[in-house]
Structures are given as structure tokens and as C-alpha cells.
Amino acid sequence: MNLKQLSQLLGLSQTTVSRALNGYPEVNAETRQRVLDAVRETGYRPNRAAQRLATGRAGSIGLVMPTADGIESDVHFGEFLAGLGDEAAKHDFHFVINPSHPDEEVATCRRLVASGNVDALFLAYMREKDPRIAMMKTLKTPFVVHGRSIGVPTDYPFLDIDNTGAFYDAARLLAQLGHRHFALLNGPDYLAFSIRRKKGTVRALAEQGLVLREDCVQHSQMTDEHGFRAMERFLQLDTPPTAVLCSSTVLALGAVRAINQAGLKLGVDISLIAHDDVLPMLKPENFMVPLTTTRSSLRAAGQRIARRLIAGILQIETLPQQELWKTDLIVRASTGPAPAGK
User: Fold this and answer.
1) Which residues contact 320 (CB under 8 A, 6 or more apart)?
2) Which UniProt keywords apply (predicted)?
């Protein structure tokens, strides 16, 4: 199907259909939606070269993916990209994914913007004093940060979850259940979300006169194997933890495996709370002992960031520039009172 046939099907002029597809503000929202619905139903695809000449836009969102020896594949990032894709597909936007060594991400972002192949960029894997933010603020290309850096002014567009509050609430619940010995299975120590989750945990314990021992903290990639090995080590300590916080259900999967192999009963001998990114292949309610979790959907975050970027590019709606989402604390069977005498 070509543009002429699509316009005849809709009873609209070719100019109106083209302007609707290209985000011109004079096309009302109802007409634009009719056009987009017809595009999905018919499989019509505009000539992207002609579209770019007409609008000056590439129709693409850019992202830089860190990759190097020792960096493992990340199911969490895949789920976030699925959310981005859900929203991008609605507006016929593409992705331009540029792999980069972590030490070269600033230069890679700059090159990607300079290429003209993207209309906007999103930044992920925020670090303390992340240099990418200052660089992007000097450019004209729109961007949104997934997360927030630490140690720099928060004067940039972002979407983040309240990581500090989530782990504060989780640790406080366990302390209120009488637990005194805690462990934290966290993400890499250079990432801002990990720093905030540890901060929330430490704050909640301090209010109860407790401390988070350094020998009970593990920073690593969030994989099943890392969760298993760390939990094995914690359980061999002279004073093992009775309460465990995990930054991911993937880490929790390994931790639970170690707990089971040690002959301990989850929710009785040891309690565990994990952060649930709502990964479709790993539902906390489907564990043998359902997991208590702090919950926030990575897919929903991806959808929201794509919507914000595309809305800014096409100027079709005004959305908040800074969003901090609260997490839900969902109590299930993996948490219970501290064992007597511990």
C-alpha cells in the first residue's frame, strides 16, 4: 500500500495523512489516531528517506549499550528495551543501538548525536557524577535519563524509581519482624541505583540501632550464579544473616537455591525480600515459597521514556520532565519473624 491508497482508504488528502504521520501540530489528535490505526491495520510503511527530507527527522531513538569482556548480558535491560519498543512501534520509530566500551560512552553518545541518525537519546546505567549528563546538556538533542546520577545537580529530564525508599521500607519491615542480622545482595557498586538501595537499607537499620556488616554485602552483576555464591558465603559466616535483601528476583533465584541446599526453610529460618522488575519469566509469586518484593515494572518504565521522547520530538503532548516512581511493597510468604534466639 502506498500513500495515495492509504489516503483514499481514510477519505483524507495525501497531505493530511503525511502531516499526521510526521507529527505536524495542525493535525488534530483524533485524525492522527485514525491514521496511525490504519497504518497498523494495513501494514503501510512510509518512505523513510522522503520522510526525513520532509521533516528533518530520522524517526529514531538512540541508545548506547555498554559492552566489554566481563560484562554479562542483562535480562533487566532486555525487559526495559521491550517497553521502549512497545511505544516506539505505535509511532513507527526505530532504535539505533550503538555498542560501546563503558570507558568510551561519553564519546560514543557524542558521535551518535553528531551522526544525525537519531532524534533523541536515552541514557541508562547511571553512575555517580555521570559525565554523560553534562555532555548531553551542551547539545540540542533531546534526552531522558533512566535513573538519576549522584553528586550532580538534578536539572535534567529523568525517570527513576525511589530506590532509597524501596529498600528502606523493605529493611524496616524485616527489622520490625525482629531480625537483627542482615545481608544485602546488590547490583554493581558503581551504579547509582545500587548506591541508593544500600543507603535505604543502612538508614532503616540505623533507626533500629542495627548495622549492615560489610561481610554481609555483595555487589555484583545481577545473575542467578552471583546470588547463589554470595548466599553460600553468607550462610557460612559465624553469625549468618536471618534477613536478606536482593536487588533483583534473578539474584534471589540463586540465593533461594543456596538457602534450600543448606536445609533452611525460607520464611521461617531466614527471610528474604527482593526487588521485582516484573520480569515475565521470573514471577515472585511462582517461587516455591512466594517472595515478598518491592515492585516496579521495567517494561512500564521503558514505555514511559519512549512516550516522553517521542512526544517531545513530535510535539504531540506535554509530559513531566522529571518523574520519581514509588514502589509497591508486596508481602508474601518469604518473610516471617526472626528465629528464636537469633
Assistant:
1) none
2) DNA-binding, Transcription, Transcription regulation
